[in-house]
Amino acid sequence: MLDKNGIAKRIAKELEDGYFVNLGIGIPTLVANYIPDGIAVEFQSENGVLGMGPFPYEGEEDADIINAGKQTITTMPGASFFDSATSFNMIRGQHVDLTILGAMEVAENGDIANWKIPGMMVKGMGGAMDLVASAENIIVAMMHTNRAGASKLLSKCSLPLTGVKCVKKVVTNLAVLSITEDGFKLLERAPGVSVEEIEKATEGKLIIEGNVPEMVLD
Q1: Dihedral (C-alpha) 6, 198, 141, 214: value to the nearest 10 degrees?
Q2: Is the full-model pTM beyond 0.90?
Q3: Domain boundaries, position 93
Q4: Radius of gyration (Cα) for the chain, nearest Å?
Q5: Active-site residue flag, 46
Q6: Which of 28, 65, 196, 201 supports an S-S bond with 100, CB 3.0-4.6 Å?
Q7: Rounded distance, CA 194 to CA 1, Å?
Q8: 216 falls within a domain
């Protein structure tokens, strides 16, 4: 199965030349480290950055240059900084081609829960609500199961929803799945992971058609 960097590396293969991409907090931020050769993309962060680069090397961090998760980042030549109002105008105006988010749960119909666990204190939902309401292409980066081993790919989310029927694709440490009208369709499996293991780890309806290939990461 993949680690977090492996998930990010696989998602990076979804990037296309000229894309404007919003990276959510967590695993999605790692995608900036794996831009495929030969393409140019612009990473946007909702706190007001366009043109994010990979994470800085240790000792080269600038505490004033951060992403929405308050991690220090680098910027690419031509990067720009702006206020949150401008940032959310980009998002609400659908000027972002691809949104990559983390999640606590995803349902087989594309619902996503990624902002609150009841009983736990949170500062707010952040920009997630705007992102899922405005984006037309959402990929979720997440672990397939929680720490207790229970599936996070469900028939119905148990946590408060962030968005309804909005997720297009999910990349986990076990598999790549698309959201269809009939459920999760298994597209690829992580290297060394069997279809049976993915079936066991998926609570929602899983559609398997023919021979499911392994992910190609390099």
Answers
A1: 40
A2: yes
A3: 4-207
A4: 17
A5: yes
A6: 28
A7: 10
A8: no
